[in-house]
């Protein structure tokens, strides 16, 4: 749509996973290093958290791409509090038989799988995505499952990836023993103003745009509106560029961004899906609100 107008080879701010657009800034490089450290050092539990849209899943996929043939990977992606016993899901993640009605039998199947993998020189890695959805009892079941690691034999590595609520849940007194087994943990923070500018510049260059497109103040406004969350940055930029194409705008400034967001808000719900936490955030509504025009007017006059 607007690709040819702005000189792009493809859309730079698509929400679809695109390895060619992956930005490894400071915070994501740090998270990558922590994940890699946990894998290489056979950490029992590794915990990575971050806001929705911060790039957790994309980052995890990047790390797991580099695992060798001596590592066996199982993933549980669809988590919820009422998913029943965890063990059948774990067996399914590794392609094992989970039809046995006896939990003891299921456990024996999994333990034998781990022991055989160890004898072959393989490391077994279980990844649980959206782990904040696990109930306290399921997290405790996960800890109990890790009891298969005994002595110097690290049979199972577990990586939990989730939203900040996971960290809150892990602070529960009943999970004290669980927390004691976490060897590596890292929270991916939002991008600051400088990182947001680098993120946008990286994506523009990746699709063939070498000339500046957004003014410095526009980049600051995008950071403010998005709270530095990459997915929200993409939504804002894609929306603004669609409007810019229609209006023939070759340069995007902060006032134009606010006018576009204001127009979207007046047309209905603006699903940015965030709640700003920065100074002055009271000018913006919560994620369940409609961006009122009077609040956006305050931004243009600030």
Automatic annotation (TrEMBL):
SMART domains per the record?
AAA
Q: Name one GO molecular function term.
A: ATP hydrolysis activity
The AAA+ ATPase domain covers 42-195
Q: Give one Pfam family.
A: AAA_22
The name this protein carries in UniProt is ATPase
